[in-house]
Amino acid sequence: MPATTTSTVAPTAAPAAPRAGTQIRLTDVVKDYGLAVPAVDGVSLTIEPGEFMTLLGPSGSGKTTTLNLIAGFETLTSGRIAFNGDDVSNLPPHKRDLGMLFQNYALFPHMTVAQNVAYPLRERKVSKAEITRRVAEVLELVQLTGRDDNVPSQLSGGQQQRVALARAIVFDPKALLLDEPLGALDRNLRGALQAEIQRIHREVGSTFVFVTHDQEEAMSLSDRIALFNSGRIEQVGSPETLYREPETLFTATFLGDSNVFELAQAPGSTVVWGDRTWAVEPRTVSDRARAAEHAALMVRPEDVRIAQRADEVPAGANAVPARVTDVHYLGSYRNVVLSYGGSDVVGQSRLDASETQLAVGQDVVAWWRVERQRVVSR
Ligand code: ADP
Ligand code: MG
After folding, report:
1. pTM of the entire structure?
2. Ligand 1 test: best mutation among 35, 40, 65, most atoms within 8 Å of CB?
3. For position 357, what pLDDT does the model report?
């Protein structure tokens, strides 16, 4: 009788002992190419040891420039960058000891997988025996054991990117910088590699700085997100904080869908939109909205409920008349498009997929709980 085995999934070996991650601190960092506005315009950010930090933002907002400043590929116009408290602002890239992963794999095409992965170790004059051991270990980590002697052209795009990832972490870098590394891959493969990157981050325990313009990717991977807007950081926080407690309309609308009511007056104990007056709880007003001249009230689609008549709205909820302009069945839920209060403000509500009572053109009342709304600056 074969021995029964109790463990079905063997844990993957982690390379050596993970070094306690490096803290990366940016202080008043500016990069000015002499354009109308600096590419990076006064960024201060502390990335904690072992943290998975994502730089998220629209194209041209300064994410890559910030990453290149951390790597030393670009020089600072002003400001300071420190690793574990040591100023590295004037250190050349090769002395910063960082791993890098880009969208294009940049593997050496004439070298085998093992030779590609060994390259940074050979440059660092690591012994032959140690190279053999570390390459085997890291190829196991990225699940490419047995592909040592293949050349890159014999591998799929996803496999090539895993080789590049192995090469970027094999020398136990101070931190791994990743610039849209999954951008060239199709949707399914991207999801699989996201999971890989997350697992590898957990196993090696080092600091990861990940650049993407994809908010879902940022939300699913990150400990914290720094949201970039025109060379500045709009807000830093956990995915949940940015989604549930945005400070500004930019943050609210960049991360997920929202129903937005632009307010004419600063928020008080109530807010006014057209002929509607809504109750406000102080803790749902962002600090930036408190100080701002212009504010907006926002509600997530999953928090907007629909009543057939005004007297069906629960006491204490905020409500607005709406017309159903579209209903989309999306499998796991039904998305209802609404136009609010006879205005051209369009919003949406997510209803249970089994909800079949609503017809396009129908007049309804949209409502939400006061604690589920947020007042943001705009
Ligand atoms: P992102 O990565 O967020 O898309 P980038 O950091 O690449 O943004 O670019 C930020 C801004 O800086 C853009 O306006 C871009 O055109 C400009 N920029 C980036 N690199 C250079 C450069 N080498 N020379 C001049 N302008 C640049
Ligand atoms: Mg970029």
Report:
1. 0.91
2. 65
3. 82
Q: Which domains does the chain have, with CATH numbers?
A: 24-240 (3.40.50.300), 245-377 (2.40.50.100)
Residue 29, strand partner residues: 43
Report the C-alpha gap between 88 and 98 in whole angstroms: 12
Residue from 215, 126, 204, 124 nearest 172 by CA: 204
In this structure, the residue with its CA closest to atom 13 of ligand 1 is 60
Query: Backbone dihedral region of 265: left (phi > 0), alpha (psi from -120 to 50 degrees) or beta?
Result: beta
Neighbours of ion ligand 2 (CB under 5 A): 64
Show the 3-state SS of 283-311: HHECHHHHHCCCEEEEECHHHCEEECCHH
pLDDT confidence tier of residue 266, bands split at 50, 70 and 90: confident
327 vs 354, higher pLDDT: 327
Find tokens 């053109």 and name the residue.
Answer: 361
In short, whether 62's Cβ falls inside 6 Å of ligand 1 is yes
Tell me the pLDDT tens digit for each residue of 91-145. Answer: 999 999 999 999 887 899 999 999 999 999 999 999 999 999 999 999 999 999 9
